[in-house]
């Protein structure tokens, strides 16, 4: 039987007990307008932000700040205050509860925060001040804020930032600012030694990484994301190097050519439509009968969907889900796009509808495109849908099946695990290539996975189960 840790306090003029057992803090408060009836409050330790002893007034008070469930999907910041009776007993009880609340996570973190004021629907600054700041303050976290005002602003600052001054870097935006931060960190002279984690507040059009961390239901919930940053610990993720021409940069999320890239990039001016713009753009690309002829070469590790699924389940349920044995390095083992294609690589040429690779399972809410993607398996998940006699109706069915990931069971969908790939569009001078949800130059590119280069803050040490 778990130990019950109790503290006697006063609620108004009435004595009451604060009880903690099995990671649950319980106490009674008076119901509003029903003074003779008490309401039982139960708060899980992971939802406790801080427990402090307030000595600012003549009466000592125990102050509990927590973020508690409101309905099935929402969280609400709440403060509870009780009169202390025995100061020595109170301080000992507070220390015990705070240790249980934070476990392996550091209390009172100091953050470098990047806010993109024009990203998504332009509400990131309001999101931070109204929703995030009160939660960070309740958890006694501190922060320095930079409002980004141009492309690559976050990248420039991350490249020169004194990382030792912060416990984490926090992005209040969509996935684009995360892309900038990662590229800024990995272009530093000390890139191989960097371990500062990145926290994610979903405040953009695309919030794929937040959805992967918190799940489809909670992925766009700002309070859930703030709690994840406060209580989470560093989780290593793989990052991909991308070479195009003489340029080299990094991608943490996705690489996309075909109707899905067209649907994303061609509707960038329609961000006010939110997720619906992707649907509109993809349908236009599909009905437009556009050509996506290309040369695809890849270092395949597995192409059997059942084996891929089994390895995913084994890794997800393992206490140490990563099986990568490669050492951390930024050096490209397979060279660049300008080098000859390795002879042992598998080649898949021809026209198709979808050539899509990703390191994350969800590409947006309700779009579980890569259900077997793992944060640090050293591999890239690749999906190909070729044009071979497949009807537009069938392609539409595949897109609709992203909702529950049933597309991976369709014979028209080819699913790979690869270490590297290169793609060269042919018979076409202009088009769209999307990398981490942003438009890239329309020219051949090569991608290679680099294991465990970056840390992301996660409460559970893994992506949400898919």
What Rg do the Cα atoms give? Answer: 25 Å
Question: Major sheet, described briefly?
Answer: 15 strands, mixed
Task: Report the end-to-end length measured between terminal Cα atoms.
Answer: 34 Å
The backbone outline, from C-alpha atoms, is elongated
Domains (count): 3
Query: Helix content range of the residues, please?
Result: 10-25%
User: Unreliable stretches, pLDDT < 50, 5 or more residues?
Assistant: none
What would you call the structural class? alpha+beta
* CATH architectural grouping of the largest domain: Sandwich
Protein name: ATP-NAD kinase-like domain-containing protein
InterPro entries: ATP-NAD_kinase_N (IPR017438), Diacylglycerol_kinase_cat_dom (IPR001206), Lipid_Phosphate_FormReg (IPR050187), NAD/diacylglycerol_kinase_sf (IPR016064), YegS/DAGK_C (IPR045540)
Pfam families: DAGK_cat, YegS_C
Keywords: ATP-binding, Kinase, Nucleotide-binding, Transferase
What does this structure look like?
The chain is of the alpha+beta class. It has three domains: 5-102, Pleckstrin-homology domain (PH domain)/Phosphotyrosine-binding domain (PTB) (PH-domain like, Roll), CATH 2.30.29; 110-231, Probable inorganic polyphosphate/atp-NAD kinase, domain 1 (Rossmann fold, 3-Layer(aba) Sandwich), CATH 3.40.50.10330; 246-320 and 328-448, Tumour Suppressor Smad4 (Sandwich), CATH 2.60.200. Helices cover 24% and strands 37% of the residues. The strands form three sheets. It has a 15-stranded mixed beta sheet that branches. The protein starts with a strand and ends in an 8-residue tail after the last strand. The model has no long low-confidence stretch (mean pLDDT 93).
